[in-house]
Amino acid sequence: MKITEHIKKAKGKTLFSFEIVPPKKGQHIQKLYNNIDPLMEFKPPFIDVTTSREEYIYVKKTGGLLERKITRMRPGTVGICASIMHKYNVDPVPHVLCGGFTKDETEYVLVDCHYLGIDNVMALRGDAMKHQSYFEPTKDGYSYASELVKQIDDLNKGKYLHDITDMPHRSDFCIGVAGYPEKHLESPSMEADLRRLVQKVEAGADYVVTQMFFDNQKYFDFVRAAREIGIKVPIIPGIKPVSIKRHLNILPQVFRINLPDDLVKEIEKCSDNKQIREVGNEWAIKQSKELLDAGVPVVHYYSMGKSDNIKTIASQVF
Ligand code: FAD
User: Fold this and answer.
1) pLDDT, tens digit, for every residue of 204-239?
2) What are the structural domains of the chain?
3) Distance CA 310, CA 306 (A)
4) Of 46, 53, 125, 148, which is best to mutate to test ligand 1, by the most ligand atoms within 8 angstroms of its C-beta?
5) Contact 74, 304 (CB under 8 A)
6) Strand duo 66-71 + 55-60: pairing
7) Residue 165 — very low, low, confident or very high, per pLDDT cuts 50/70/90?
């Protein structure tokens, strides 16, 4: 079922959902199930599965020389989606990226999703590769998520690449896109970023999931500004609990988001990561309760491959 239909069916009740990251290749899928199992009691109607960009690794050659190879360390997004759809009877949402994929490869991913009966996809540009200072589009790929949304929307209309049109068995993907309550790190202003979000919606996006934020006011302001500029689709807040001291520096650095000073001070008082997790969970519980009171359609949690803190939070909120 489409995310938008889940939201309609809930009739104003806030839903619980979360995002998982495929394990590194070579690991068993059971590791993933062990993290999903404890969260199923909160009845997520959908689970997002991220896609990782390719990266460089260095392989030792005879003689000690290192050879640079490009590889994907966490492949398997569509396979994981198929597996969790059947094991848990939830709607999986594969993330589809511009970065690292040609348009044709994207079409093949979408065809696989269609054959598997996957109803939702999240369309994202992806970040720069680790060694790059800014995002460079893949040859025969896209520069912006709005272009990817258009390809998916075209497919929904029966239009494949290479002018194959009017195919009878059309996909009908519900398309999610990313939104940034504190603006995307490359965007010159909040207003410019919102105009880009409008482009994604006009290209066919059905709903928005936000980047993590730690101050709900940023989300409320973002939703208000999005509504004022004409965006009518659901805007789902994304929440991540802080769990280690390094998050104080990593999260602002990687995502260009702010952490409220009250949260920073509480974390700085902690003597170990166990205490930090408690503070992070308490903060996320407070945020989630306020979002529920505000009537948000879904609270979406970034699990980053670990579910115990999400379980603690969800058990206080849902
Ligand atoms: P876009 O919407 O293309 O925007 C990127 C930048 O370009 C913005 O600054 C925007 O303002 C600007 N822009 C857009 N269109 C134009 C235009 N026509 N001209 C000029 N500027 C333009 N990353 C992953 O690698 N894998 C994942 O699974 C993943 N999942 C995510 C899930 C969520 C909910 C979120 C919020 C992010 C996720 N990301 C993921 C990170 C995402 O890929 C990065 O934030 C990326 O840098 C931007 O992606 P986007 O889809 O928002 O890009």
Assistant:
1) 999 999 999 999 999 999 999 999 999 999 999 999
2) 3-317 (3.20.20.220)
3) 8
4) 125
5) no
6) antiparallel
7) confident
pLDDT at 199: 98
Residue type, 214: F
pLDDT band at 253 (very low <50, low <70, confident <90, very high): very high
Euclidean distance between CA atoms 243 and 232, whole angstroms: 34
Mutational pocket test of ligand 1: of 48, 196, 253, the residue with most ligand atoms within 8 Å of the beta carbon: 196
Residue 95 CA, closest ligand 1 atom number: 28
Q: What is the pLDDT of residues 22-80, one digit of tens each?
A: 999 889 999 999 999 999 999 999 999 999 988 888 888 888 889 888 888 888 999 99
Give pLDDT tens digits for 277-309.
999 999 999 999 999 999 999 999 998 878 999
Atom of ligand 1 nearest to the CA of 238: 34
Around ligand 1, the residues with Cβ closer than 6 Å are: 50-51, 53, 95, 97, 124-127, 144-146, 178, 184, 186-187, 193, 196, 200, 209, 211, 238
Q: For ligand 1, atom 30, which residue shows the shortest CA distance?
A: 50
Q: Whose CA is nearest to atom 41 of ligand 1?
A: 126
Exposure string over 113-130, b if 16+ CB within 10 A, otherwise e:
bbebebbbbbbbbbbeee
Is 77:49 a contact under the CB 8 Å cutoff?
yes
Task: Give the angle subtended at the CA of 299 by the CAs of 295 and 303, to the nearest 5°.
Answer: 170
Alpha helix positions (H), the chain: 3-10, 30-36, 77-88, 103-116, 145-156, 190-203, 216-228, 247-255, 261-269, 273-293, 308-317
Q: Is the Cβ–Cβ distance between 156 and 170 less than 8 Å?
A: yes
Whose CA is closest to atom 51 on ligand 1? 124
Residue whose CA lies nearest to ligand 1 atom number 24: 126
